[in-house]
Design brief:
50% helix; mainly alpha; 68 residues
Length: 68
């Protein structure tokens, strides 16, 4: 999505949901939505075949601490 499309989407969806964005919050919402759109594009770029299946469950792991 282009920056203009992201701004239009944020404005349209907030209006449709009746969510009033404060002027000082809008830049952060637009920036976050742009980041989320980038993540979505990365996921959508992964080719899948008809034989690929979703994971049965998700197990989180604790990140390893950096060694000093």
């Amino acid at each position: 999505m282009t920056p203009a499309q992201i701004e239009s989407y944020v404005d349209a969806t907030s209006a449709a949901l009746g969510l009033r964005l404060r002027p000082d919050h809008r830049p952060g919402v637009v920036r976050f939505f742009g980041l989320a759109a980038e993540f979505a594009a990365l996921v959508e770029a992964v080719p899948l075949s008809p034989h690929d299946e979703p994971a049965v469950n998700f197990t989180s792991v604790t990140p390893r601490e950096k060694e000093a």
